[in-house]
């Protein structure tokens, strides 16, 4: 597809790289020459310096022939206007990043009036992801499918667990839950395990199960499931506001530390049930004074990646039982941070790129088959997808044992009109189903692509 990206910041660059790697023809627009060259010198894209809200500029960049315009500048209004112009001028699909809380309640109206194919609020989505981690504090990764009915959680097998030296095929007899281990990492090697795969303490595994089964499963394998009651948020920016609002609605006690006095006053009015503290969340004295060691969870949402990382490292040393969530934005830190004990890592840039990449995939799919959900797990080495099955699916009714899947691919769950099925060899895929699939193969766009023949 021909795609135009308006805005060459961190999100724009990440999208440009992701989309060119999957074979799309990408053009980037930005007013700043330095931003354009930063992208074009490292990624195989066309660059155009100009104003994305200019009709002339969009025409020069090729909007007439484009399939999609993605507006991810730092300004919501510019993004919306760029999408409106693209829709009227080029009749293409449009996606806008809209971040401001003032538009939260109006987003449905704005999408309809502007003709947006999709809008994304990265800060809101990041807050939703943090809430999932807080709901299941023992998990290192938490993703959901089938409108929340299916969970995919990433955990580390603890010492002396019943999973140690257990073969995957013996899991049901030991745990007695409907859990299915779909990804395993041992000594840095990631595999989609078969029944004979041997698990070890210290391995990272991804498990699919229903939300109601999670606590039972964790307790069985030796991970104590605790309920989060007190949360400290370091940083009172937009993400901090969204997160605090959601936690308060869940009747969780929230304490926010924010350095800017004016922002503290705003938060006090917006979140009357939260405790707002004006101060520097990186100061040890303040953290001690506010009893950080007694918190169930701490979220590092400061503007500086370095400050968030240092805060998380300090908390891990102070009390390893604290659930820690760390916001990290810079690409250059990803590999380093993966080796550090900083808890769950959140990147609004990565979340935005994932959501938009999912939509782009769905645009490519054949009629009746689309990517409904898409997550990258195990540090991006595995993709977990929810794929719907259309009327043209030729293997409907064929038992799974008779289907030949592509290598390193596993069907984890079947959603049949709201009924969740843990698949066995005698189960079938039917038209109208959606299936959760994990695979190390990249760029899967539809259910047919995972079946050989």
Q: What do these coordinates show?
A:
By secondary structure, this protein is of the alpha/beta class. The chain is about 30% helix and about 25% strand. The protein is built from 14 helices and 22 strands. It has a six-stranded parallel beta sheet, sandwiched between helices. It is globular and about 65 Å long.
Strand content: 15-25%
Q: Over all CA atoms, what is the radius of gyration?
A: 23 Å
Distance between termini?
Answer: 26 Å
**Unreliable sequence segments:** none
Overall 3D geometry?
Answer: globular
Averaged pLDDT: 90
Query: Within the largest sheet, what's the order of strands?
Result: 3-2-1-4-5-6
Number of strands: 22
Which sheet architecture does the biggest sheet show? 6 strands, parallel
**Helix proportion range:** 25-40%
SSE class: alpha/beta
Number of helical regions: 14
Brief sketch in words of this structure:
This protein is of the alpha/beta class and 453 residues long. The protein contains 14 helices and 22 strands.
